[in-house]
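I have a small job for you when you get a moment. Can you supply me with one protein entry, sequence and fold together? It will help me judge whether the discrete encoding reads sensibly. Write everything out right here, beneath this request:
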Amino acid sequence: MNEQNIPPLLIPPFLPIFTIMSTHHPKQSHLQLKSLFDLLYLRLCRFADLLIADSAMAEDIVQKVFINYECEDDDFPAIKMFLYKEVLNACQEHKATVKTAFLRAEVGGEINRAIAALPEGCGKVFKLSYVEELKNEEIAAEMSMPVSWVKTQKARAQELLHWRLKPETFLVLNFFLSIAE
């Protein structure tokens, strides 16, 4: 079967580089790899799409799995099972990455909303201290207030945030505040 008889969807642009990328003795010939690709590519894409519900990312994951397989030095006797397992692992890693980014954005948004809701003096002192990283003396000079007032406003801001944020969100905030000091 030559490349002209295969629908374009089954031959992704990276397939010809398999033979170029391989610096070791290939475990399979280009034709064997192409046959394996033709047989499993769409099935693996559907499998990945079921796992992550993102067709474009599913195709990217499957392509990376095939590239990684070609670059692998080991010879896998159960290649079909290996490829499915690799796609499953890559999809789980992708989902974890997306979930982490979502949680960061969610926690960051919650913290930013709580800071924005602080009384004016507290909020300004908090931002100058932890966002701008100014020292108490610098904040006092900028706001024309005594250093003791700055310290009181920082403590008040932390107390208000403690009550306004979920406990786990406040722990995250407190962790970053302790690093900043």
Notes: The mean pLDDT is 79. The chain has two domains: 3-98, 117-180. The first helix runs from residue 17 to 21. The chain is about 75% helix and 0% strand.
